[in-house]
Design a protein that fits this description.
The complex is a heterodimer of chains A (119) and B (885). Chain A is an alpha+beta fold and 119 residues long. Chain A is built from 4 helices and 5 strands. Chain A is globular and about 55 Å long. By secondary structure, chain B is of the alpha+beta class. Chain B is 52% helix and 14% strand. In chain B, strands 2, 3, 6, 7, 8, 9, 10, 11, 14 and 15 form a 10-stranded mixed β-sheet that branches. The relative contact order of chain B is 0.09. Classes of the chains: A alpha+beta (119), B alpha+beta (885). The interface between A and B is medium-sized, with 28 and 33 residues.
Chain lengths: 119, 885
């Protein structure tokens, strides 16, 4: 069982992935997300690329064409300064959201460890 | 993450949108296939699985395409703005580094643009801008026509107009008005205020909002209601100091206190072509200060401006009402758009055209100057351009950069031009003919449209005058980059110097054209002032008096009052004699058309216009200095009914060519009484000399009971000294007596030439400006040429050429260019002479003396402009030149 992505979080995850400063192409981002969530998070491949391009258009990422280590033509994405500050804002909101969620869940069920919606 | 870069950014051709999407998706699928293969799937199976897990590829592609299009568009904009900003900074740096150049260009161009801006604001107020009312195209004047007079007249019998207004449904709003002035006695001395009596729809129909207070209400129109008045903004600030407390206060008009209920906005004019200070109620009984109003005019607003149906409806009702009163009348009504009057005053239109042409020439000269300066600067920077081209900058980019510089200069000129135009307008307002005040429906001031025009012109100048030098500089630099870069001795890169010489020649030619125009106008004005009206202007003062009929209802008392006034004035020290007249030059009195000569058939002799007339007493000739060529002056006791007249020599020789006019008779219509010519005056004219009917004048004997007239006052010395004492004498008799005008005869007469004076002053100023610009252009060309040919000149001098010879070389070039310019400019002036002809008096547009004088001026200026470069050339020191190299 994998977790379905909450609407609108894919862009945040992409920004977070690239926040290390490393340039990555789409497939690398996908692989990294799968690896760190140990396969728990199901990223829709068809949604990833539009997300990347949208971020590029907003100026939060820059895309650059290059040759990968396998010798293939690939588009590499890097986070921009504006992308970073956007990430900080979004992360903060998420933290507060999760905190609030936790409180609500605790108040409603008394359970100490709520989990996000499962699917 | 990785310590080293696992990928290489490669500068390959940037893929197109679809191509990039394709590459990216392909890459993804390949990577996926690799991964699946590692897990042991077969090639085909792996491909299928990769495609499946990617999802709906078509949808993804189209979404990516949409996003990328937006991305590319914003990239392009950003890139463009980036380079523009870069260009602007670059240009600004360049201009700061060469301030003399920048100031020279900005100043000349600003002069050109500013002159155009100032004139535009006058032309705009006078001719172009819509009338200052809400939806002015809906406003119309009602005219009554008959089959004999299809043009129609606006004057209606008040009862007819009232009845029509009450019954009509043709137009949504209308009002009646009657031109009427009133004597204001609240100022330093009594004055006649031009006014208008209006019915209550006045403010609403015009769609004007009072600046302060309100317009008229029906209650104000009831006879016997408390008198109220609406005043003009101008009168408010002039007489009441612009006080906000003026509302509700009283002013005395014709001896009656009127409460101020409203102040109209600044510049508001109605009637449009007039000056009006007060609007008063036109009472429901059609009486104005107790006297019946003889006629009214009607102004209507037609919704949507569709006049035809409204005209039909209005006329149908009017015709019915007219037939009730006068069954055989053929009168009808028609609507005349209010804006139509703009076509009037042909003199003013002609003047505006002339000035428009003059300022256009100035702008052209300033533009040519700018082109010249930019070319010079381009030449100085050829090396820089060549280096940049060689380093890979595209020519388009360089053109744009130079274009930006030109545009920056133009915009700075635009800003400066606004200030210059403002100053110019201030000055213009002092010398503007009074007729402009009358004919402009707007206040003349620098407003939005003028600003827009000025900046538009600046941008246009930047484009037109900036592009050519930019193209030229980069082309020459391109040649240079191709090979000449290393060579210090390569021919100078400005390219054919012929272009710059042609430009300077153009400047000279344009200023010659303008100088000829100015010269003709000056000549015309001089002739005008020399053409005296045949009275002694040196020792005469003029007093215009009007005695209100309501103050002296019977002729006897009015006559006694006037005699008393005249007696007191004669008692003023320095006054020798006085005589009452019907009007002195340049103001003729009543005018009539056509005359019938006795014994030469009943066919009236057409006069092609009007016959200027005035009235005179028996002492007219003795007092005014007018001369009698034949016959006798009037005799005491002769008046209007005596059937005698005196005519001037011009009229005499027109009516009876080659024969003596004295004793002959004529009349002005079939039923008019015969008039016997008893005298002929010489050189006497009533109208300004450039007026079509100026050669004709007719004088009839003046009765003793003139209600208003012009008093000629003969003085022993300078008439200026008696003006104040005469004023005091008049007010000593009656402190409420309005003095229309009190001045010396000379300045009274000079007023008739104010349009001509205005034209010649403005055009001459512009022509001198043009001359200065051309001289500067010539100087720049010569100085540059000398600097460029230092080596050659130095060698010549070293080889024994005399410095006088070198000087002659420089001056000779100046004269050659000037000669070419003068010939072209002179031809231009000849070709356009028709244009100025209508404005000239007594001067042919081909006047040889003017052309010769302009030639002398332009060659003089050329010699002056070449003096410094010539001296510099003669002092070139070859050794110093070589050291500097």
């Amino acid at each position: 069982m994998t977790i379905k992505m909450v609407q609108g979080t894919l862009e945040l995850l992409v920004l977070k992935t690239l926040s290390g400063g490393e340039a990555m192409h789409g497939f690398e981002i996908l692989r990294w997300l799968t690896r760190v969530t140990e396969g728990e998070l199901e990223v829709e491949e068809g949604a990833l690329y539009p997300a990347l391009h949208r971020l590029e258009r907003r100026g939060w990422l820059v895309g650059e064409w290059g040759i990968s280590e396998k010798g293939r033509r690939a588009k590499y994405y890097t986070i921009t300064v504006r992308g970073r500050s956007e990430l900080r804002v979004e992360e903060e909101q998420w933290r507060r959201y999760l905190l609030a969620w936790e409180r609500i869940a605790r108040a409603a069920t008394g359970s100490p460890s709520p989990s996000p919606a499962t699917g | 993450m990785g310590m080293f870069r696992r990928w290489v950014a490669v500068r390959f051709r940037r893929p197109g949108i679809d191509e990039g999407i394709d590459w990216e998706i392909q890459h993804h699928l390949q990577e996926r296939v690799d991964e699946l293969r590692v897990r042991g799937l077969g090639e085909d199976e792996a491909r299928r699985e990769a495609l499946r897990s990617f999802g709906d590829e078509v949808r993804v592609r189209s979404e990516l395409r949409r996003i990328d299009r937006g991305l590319r568009a914003s990239e392009r904009t950003r890139e463009f703005l980036g380079t523009v900003w870069q260009d602007v900074r670059y240009a600004a740096r360049g201009l700061v580094g060469n301030a003399t150049f920048a100031v020279a260009v900005v100043l000349t161009l600003a002069l050109g643009i500013g002159a155009n801006g100032a004139l535009f604001s006058v032309a705009d107020a006078l001719l172009l801008r819509p009338l200052p009312f809400a939806a002015p195209e809906e406003l119309a004047q009602v005219l009554q026509t008959t089959p004999h007079a299809e043009q129609g007249m606006p004057y209606m019998a008040p009862p007819l107009a009232r009845e029509w207004l009450a019954d009509q449904t043709a137009v949504p709003s209308a009002f009646l008005h009657w031109r009427a002035s009133a004597t204001y006695t609240g100022g330093a001395e009594p004055a006649t205020l031009p006014g208008l009596a209006v019915t209550e729809g006045f403010v609403e129909t015009l769609g004007a909002r009072p600046f302060l207070g309100r317009g008229f209400a029906p209650g104000d129109m009831v006879p016997g209601a408390p008198p109220v008045v609406v005043i003009s903004h101008d009168f408010w600030s002039r007489a009441l100091g612009g006080s906000p407390h003026a509302l509700g206060t009283d002013i005395e008009l014709n001896g009656v206190l009127h409460t101020i209920i409203g102040v109209m906005p600044r510049g508001f004019k109605f009637p449009v072509y007039s000056t009006t200070d007060i609007w008063l109620p036109l009472y429901d009984d059609d009486r104005y200060f107790g006297r019946a109003v003889p006629y009214v005019e009607i102004l209507v607003r037609v919704e949507g401006g569709d006049f035809a149906p409204a005209e039909a409806a209005a006329s149908a009702l009017a015709e019915a009402l007219i037939r009730e009163r006068q069954p055989d009348s053929e009168a009808a009504w028609r609507l005349d758009p209010l804006d139509r009057m703009r076509a009037s005053s042909p003199e003013l239109r002609q003047a505006m055209k002339l000035l428009g042409a003059a300022v256009a020439l100035i702008l052209l000269i300033a533009g040519v100057n700018m082109v010249n300066l930019l070319l010079l600067r381009g030449a100085a920077r050829t090396r820089e351009m060549a280096v940049r081209l060689a380093l890979g900058a595209s020519r388009r980019r360089l053109v744009r950069q130079l274009g930006t510089e030109a545009m920056l200069l133009a915009l700075m000129s635009g800003v400066m031009a606004v200030f210059l135009a403002l100053g110019a307008l201030r000055v213009l307002q002092h010398i503007m003919p009074t007729s402009i005040d009358f004919w402009t429906p707007h206040a003349i001031e620098l407003e939005g449209r003028t600003l827009l025009f000025t900046f538009g012109l600046a941008v246009l100048s930047g484009l037109v005058f900036g592009l050519l030098p930019a193209l030229r500089a980069t082309r020459v630099a391109g040649v240079e980059a191709g090979g000449g870069l290393a060579s210090r001795t390569s021919p100078h890169p400005v390219g054919p110097a012929a272009l710059r010489r042609a430009l300077v020649t153009t400047e000279v030619a344009l200023s010659v054209t303008l100088l000829v125009g100015a010269g003709l106008l000056i000549g015309s004005f001089l002739r005008l002032t020399q053409a005296e009206p045949g009275i002694d202007l040196e020792r005469l003062a003029v007093l215009e008096l009007s005695v209100a009929a309501r103050d002296f209802p019977d002729a006897e008392r009015r006559g006694a009052y006037l005699r008393l006034l005249e007696e007191r004035i004669r008692g003023v020290p320095g006054v020798e004699a006085t005589t009452m007249t019907g009007g002195l030059p340049p103001r003729g009195g009543a005018l009539m058309f056509g005359v019938v000569l006795e014994g030469e058939g009943e066919e009236p002799r057409p006069l092609d216009g009007m016959l200027p007339t005035t009235g005179a007493r028996e002492d007219f000739f003795a007092v005014t200095g007018a001369r009698l060529a034949a016959g006798r002056p009037f005799e005491r006791g002769e008046d209007h009914d005596s059937g005698v007249v005196i005519i001037n020599a011009g009229l005499a020789s027109y009516l009876w060519p080659g024969r003596s006019a004295v004793g002959r008779r004529f009349r002005t219509g079939e039923h008019s009484p015969w008039l016997t010519v008893v005298g002929v005056t010489e050189g006497f004219r009533l109208l300004p000399p450039d007026h079509a009917q100026s050669d004709f004048a007719l004088i009839h004997p003046l009765g003793a009971d003139m209600g208003s007239g012009t008093l000629a006052i003969r003085t022993a010395g300078d008439p200026r000294h008696v003006l104040q004492p005469v004023r005091a004498a008049v007010h000593g008799v009656n402190p409420r007596q309005v003095i229309g005008r009190l001045d010396t005869a000379r300045s009274f007469y000079a007023e008739s030439m104010d349009l001509q004076r205005f034209l010649y002053i403005v055009v001459t100023t512009l022509a001198l400006l043009a001359l200065a610009l051309a001289a500067v252009g010539l100087y720049g060309l010569l100085a540059y040429g000398v600097a460029r040919r230092q080596r050659e000149i130095g060698v010549r001098l070293a080889l024994g050429a005399r410095s006088a010879h070198v000087r002659r070389l420089v001056v000779g070039e100046a004269l050659a260019l000037t000669a070419a310019g003068a010939v072209i400019g002179g031809a231009g002036a000849l070709a356009t002479s028709r244009f100025i002809e209508a404005t000239l008096y007594g001067v042919e547009p081909t006047d040889t003396r003017t052309y010769l004088a302009v030639g002398a001026v332009i060659f003089g200026a050329a010699v002056l402009a070449s003096l410094v470069p010539a001296r510099r050339a003669a002092r070139v020191d070859l050794a110093a030149v070589l050291r500097a190299d």
